[in-house]
Amino acid sequence: MTGVGSRWRSAALAAAVDRLAAEVDQAWRALLREYGVAEGSEDEAELARLVVADPAGHDWRVVDAALARSACDECGAPSTQGPPTCQLCAFHHGQRFGARETDRPAAPPGNEHASRVAWAVVQAPGRYGSRARAGFELSLPDLLAGHLPSTAQAQAARAQLNRLTPGQCDRVTSFAEVERLAAAAVSPPHPVASAPGGRGHPAG
Ligand SMILES: [Zn+2]
């Protein structure tokens, strides 16, 4: 993926997105080599369809690469990237969470899951609310660096995000900024919650 940068809320997030996008591409090219399939061929399109149909059989990076290379039969966009109203895109977005997650040796258990969920939120921002997007997007660089917040830390971050307005959530560039804004907030917490790093399909 090229051209990222201004689209993201911080340089750290842009770098994290670049890194994961490169990993997703590498994982796909490795699968092509494994099957002796040429890039850009009809066989590649067929392989993508097979992977999308069997997410549990592949690493999540391979599944995400296959989704990006498959057109949605309903809306024609790359699978999962169509409008939030496309039910087939929503279905495949849910299915992607069935892909394999293998924790990296140097990272704590659960880090890989949290990373892949944060990546999914970055890939499908229209499916999530501003607080969920802020929480996952601010977490992604630390997750890629091999950190995993404790449950207490995640809850504290969520409580702080709940004190911010949706506009503030869209603009914040770090958890330190979230902490400052939450401390200055005069309004009661907003009744929205979605746990960064929570198991399964995150709610918007
Ligand atoms: Zn669609």
Written description of the protein model:
This protein has 204 residues and is mainly α. The chain folds into two domains: 9-100, no CATH class; 107-204, no CATH class. Helix content is 54%, strand content 0%. α1 (11-35) packs across α6 (130-144) and α2 crosses α3 (60-68). Mean pLDDT is 89; it is low at 1-5 and 193-201. The structure holds zinc ion. Zinc ion binds at residues 72, 74-75, 77, 82, 86, 88-89. Residues 72, 74-75, 77, 82, 86, 88-89 line the site of zinc ion.
Key terms:
204 residues; binds zinc ion; 2 domains; 9 helices; mainly alpha; single chain
What layout of secondary structure does this protein have?
Blueprint: H1 11-35, H2 42-53, H3 60-68, H4 87-95, H5 111-123, H6 130-144, H7 151-161, H8 166-171, H9 175-184
Helix pairs in contact: 1-3, 1-6, 2-3, 5-6
Q: Care to count the β-strands?
A: 0
H/I helix tally: 9
Distance between the termini: 25 Å
Strand content: under 5%
What is the average per-residue confidence, as pLDDT, rounded to a whole number? 89
Short overview:
The protein has 204 residues and is mostly helical.
